[in-house]
Amino acid sequence: VRKELLYEGKAKKIYSTELQSEVVVEYKDSLTAFNALKKGSFAGKGALNLRMTALLFEHLSKNGVPTHLIKQLGPTELLVKKVEIIPLEVVVRNVLAGSTAKKFGIEEGQVLAKPLVEFYFKNDALADPFLSDDQALMLGIVKETEIPQLKTMALKVNDVLAKVMNQAGMTLVDFKIEIGREGNRLLLADEISPDCCRLWDKKTGEKMDKDRFRRDLGNVAETYQEVCKRLSEVLK
Ligand code: TMP
Ligand code: ASP
Questions:
Q1: Given ligand 1 and candidates 116, 176, 192, which is best to mutate, with the most ligand atoms within 8 Å of its CB?
Q2: Ligand 1: which of 89, 91, 173 to mutate, judged by most atoms within 8 Å of the beta carbon?
Q3: Residue 88's closest CA among 197, 199, 188?
Q4: pLDDT for 157-196, tens place per residue?
């Protein structure tokens, strides 16, 4: 089905297909952090992230969140609907950690009374800055009517995902999603994996996500394998 390479990102490649409306996403083994200042990889990483994304997207779609996923083609390839990606990283936080904890000088781990939704402008040259709703409108990235739709979708993903992670023995601390337009419908796109979530083991508090790589905590590959194993058990 793969035709020509349309785009190569830090962790994925996108290929055209015979159909204008569909593309193939290939998951790579690379791992980057801090806007690719830090680079790494491990064998099997692409396949693990694909497996987790496919399981979670299928579950989300059964639970009322439409996604771009059509089907899995191979261990590192997904067939997806071609969408127009909105250049926003939509972040939801249940527990304060990472950049927002740092920004306000609050220690990581504070459980939030209500999930926090944040938008970042997806722009590597600018290092993905935080932006307000009005700034997103000013830049012409989103239509006024899409802002509440994006937030509703992000919170719905949070509800479904937090339950799954809880069943798998992990706290969903925060995550980032990307959303695309298919006509005037919004679809969940990109991926959901330990690359774009913070997951803390419920028993030990151990970090089970890309922070192991960002913060040099070791056992990166083993941790991704463990998260995949737990999700496979919960979502089989
Ligand atoms: P942050 O605390 O660094 O803002 O990250 C919040 C969440 O979003 C965390 O789960 C990691 C994820 N994220 C990405 O997936 N890609 C990114 O480029 C950034 C900055 C965060
Ligand atoms: N995803 C970003 C990068 O690849 C930032 C991060 O996750 O820390 O550089």
A1: 176
A2: 91
A3: 188
A4: 999 999 999 999 999 999 999 999 999 899 999 999 999 9
Q: Is the CB of 196 under 6 A from ligand 1?
A: yes
Three-state secondary structure call for residue 110: coil
Gap from CA of 171 to ligand 1 centroid (Å): 16
Residues 134, 135, 136, CA angle at the centre, nearest 5°? Answer: 90
For residue 44, which phi and psi values (nearest 5 degrees)? 90, -5
CA distances to 94, 96, 116, 205 from 113, in Å: 8, 11, 9, 20
Read off the pLDDT of each residue in 140-158 and give the average, rounded to a whole number: 98
CA 170 – ligand 2 centroid, Å: 22
Judged against a pLDDT cut of 90, whether residue 140 lies above it is answered with yes
Which residue has a Cα nearest atom 6 of ligand 2?
A: 33
3-state helix, strand, coil in the chain (%, to 5): 30, 35, 35
Give the number of the ligand closest to the Cα of residue 93.
1
Sign, CA torsion 49/51/52/56: positive
User: CA-CA distance, 90 to 159, in Å (whole number)?
Assistant: 15
* Ligand 1 centroid – CA 196 distance (Å): 6
Separation between Cα atoms, residue 168 and residue 166, nearest integer Å: 5
Name the band, by pLDDT with cuts 50, 70 and 90, for residue 198.
Answer: very high
Tokens found for residue 130: 């935080």
